[in-house]
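Sanity check. The docking grid for 6-O-phosphono-beta-D-glucopyranose depends on where the pocket ends up, so I'm generating a full predicted complex first rather than guessing from homology. Inputs follow.
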Amino acid sequence: MSSQIIPVEIFDYIVFGGNGDLAERKLLPALYHRDLDGQIPAGARIIGASRTALSDEDYRAFAQKALDSFVPAGDLTPTSVERFLARLHYRQVDARGDGGWAELKSLLDEAGDDRIRAFYMAVSPALFSDIASRINTLGLANERTRLVVEKPVGRDLESAKRLNALIGEHFREDQVFRIDHYLGKETVQNLMALRFANMLYEPLWNSAFVDHVQITVAESVGLEGRAGYYNTAGAMRDMVQNHILQLVCLVALEPPSAMDADALRDEKLKILRSLKRIDDSNVEHVTVRGQYRAGASNGGAVKGYLEDLGEPSSDIETFVAIKAEINNWRWAGVPFYIRTGKRLSERMSEIVVTFRPIPHSIFEGSAGHVQQNQLVMRLQPDEGVKQWLMIKDPGPGGMRLRHVPLDMTFAESFHVRNPDAYERLLMDVIRGNQTLFMRRDEVEAAWEWVDPILKAWEGRSMKPQGYTSGTWGPSSSIALIERDGRTWHEPD
Ligand code: BG6
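Predicted complex below; grid placement will be based on this.
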């Protein structure tokens, strides 16, 4: 495969929070894989920065451990690991003071002023504006600087606007890359291909033919050492405001005029602005909040949220289900049921489009029930697409109908490794391609929909309902969809 890979231009990636969890689990392994595939040019560097005192050698040892833990052993060869580690450097930098910045600047200047400088904020959002302003005022930015911002961008509309404005004081919007790693996932990309590179679906992709859409992002893990952050966020801010709303947009948007950053983001913005408002008047009817209790996960007993947190009480939700609606011509009357949660039955994310029932059956009752067609796009695990159709059961014995999938499991069909979303996104930053990144107005529009829900929960003291770890969430989530005569799609 590597013969098809086009190297990117030479760059310095400067990772603030370079020795943190994200760098360890995602960024360093992703950059290693791109290097392994020959995409990173000779001389390109990765520079870790944080307030911890580390030498270059310490940082390489940290990276070596990260690769050992998060890259499959078969992909680690001594030569490629050595080449990758040699690209790494580290500078101790104080985000809130001037300490270390001169040293970082002189390291950058050693390589000249004309290479791409990508500054990655893998730090708490509280530090974004301090770092952004120092990059500029202390002369670290050059003509080819890009700024990569991890979520969460704010914790409500007001703080998001404030943060965007602060970043905007130092960087042009075309230099800012707000990451939502769901947009880099293979199946999410494929959704675009499926919709806009085929004639088959687009004519059916509207309220005349689609009955409803379901989006599930289920995790079996709990807090994973992120209690401090998670207990200020909850599932709504952590998953719905960004990842899930992005998926809703990609399913629902109008065909953009081109696969171009602004054309695509203009269409996503229209969807976000068309979402039917949920507030105090309807919140109890169309939303569900849950919090996991003790139970079983991955074959072992697990604790409840409060025990994981080590606190006697918390009103933070670890599960959300919502019946969302889009008020536009294409989607009026088509519910989008979304749900996400931690400590659910299994790790499974999928988008399911269920088409309307046939208007009239010509078959006798003995043929069996004619089920509705479904298109199931599986994001993880086992990425792939299944189109469920009715066919005749083969053989004599009269007409018997069966619901079967046309199955395209990517790993089986293409025999390739499925790259992590960060691999694509990190290289898109270098390529200067913002298509898969969130624009400022998009982030703010998403908060505009989310804020009234959060406020209504608070105003009504709508506390999360307990659910047993290892299940599919609170029973009211099942009621949410069954009230409409529908059921959550059972993963097969
Ligand atoms: C992150 C959230 O953005 O996405 C995490 O902060 C969550 O809480 C993660 O676990 C899920 O990502 P993925 O790619 O494993 O589905």
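Relevant for the grid: The pocket of 6-O-phosphono-beta-D-glucopyranose is lined by residues 219, 238 (CB under 6 Å).
Also worth noting: The mean pLDDT is 94.
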